[in-house]
Amino acid sequence: MTRLRTALSCCVLVLVAAGCGIRPTGVTDGGTAPSGIPTGMRVYFASGAGLRGVPRPGIKVDDFNVAYKLLLSGPTPQERADGLTNLVSLEQRQNVTSHRGNVTIDARHHSADFPQDQSTGQLVCTFARAEVLIHGTRPDQVQVTLIGRDGRAGPYQCQQFLSR
Length: 164
Hints:
Blueprint: H1 2-18, E1 41-45, E2 52-56, H2 64-72, H3 77-81, E3 95-99, E4 102-106, H4 118-135, E5 143-148, E6 151-156, H5 159-162
Parallel strand pairs: 4-5
Antiparallel strand pairs: 1-2, 3-4, 5-6
């Protein structure tokens, strides 16, 4: 009799658990899969929430002049509507060189008084990304030095401007 009660109790528990009120659902979409490290060019613009990189898909960056032109073209109308702005002066020319992941930006019009402002971050991050694409340098190995009218600032890594 004890075995019969035990067996009946187990059957009742299985039936209760199976009919707990949770109905089956169809397949739900979880969105796009994480893509990891971005593969194309990113240009960095300022916003009220800090520096933000935006993709420029389909553009081959084979020298720093291409990256500079992308930066000077500024945010798209949609990006401006999202609060992005360009703080890099459009009139002054940047001379950018690199050697083994060490990027030097000669921007003598740029003040080094506030070396970690968003305009400096725009330069550092945009040209660091270009260095990765042009020479295949690992992003964590890129060091950027800015030569401004007040002297040298840096070396910096882009992450210093993004984690603020």
